[in-house]
Amino acid sequence: MELREALRDYTRELMKEAHEKGAPVMRPLFYEFKNDDKVWDIKDEYLYGPDLLVAPNLYEGAVSREVYLPEGSKWTDARTGSVFEGGQTILVEAPLSSIPVFLRDGRQAYLIGKI
């Protein structure tokens, strides 16, 4: 419930944009990062709107996973507050109880610790 409330205004903005402009709420990485050749082949990460990169664990028994952070932005791990330069692949903890989420360029910083 806390996460849903934290994302309420952001989700409302996304729904308005979807209604008025036809922009998808859940987006493949290439939707926002057309010039980053690496994102065109990534199938296990997505963006929730333009600012939240979601990288779920898709494999039973896995406790970590590699996450590619698109170039041209800095990315903040919503769980830890650690900041990473885009254009690199990092290894993150990814237990089934916690989905890795990254905030683009420090946007939505109020979500750190709530995701």
TrEMBL record:
Q: Cite the Glycosyl hydrolase family 31 C-terminal domain residue spans from the record.
A: 22-106
- Family annotation (Pfam families): Glyco_hydro_31_3rd
Query: What keywords would UniProt list here?
Result: Hydrolase
The organism named in the record is Paenibacillus prosopidis
Its taxonomic path starts at: Bacteria, Bacillati, Bacillota, Bacilli, Bacillales
What one GO molecular function would you report for this record? Answer: hydrolase activity
Q: Which domain of life is it from?
A: Bacteria
Q: Which residues form the signal peptide?
A: none
What is the recorded name of this protein? Glycosyl hydrolase family 31
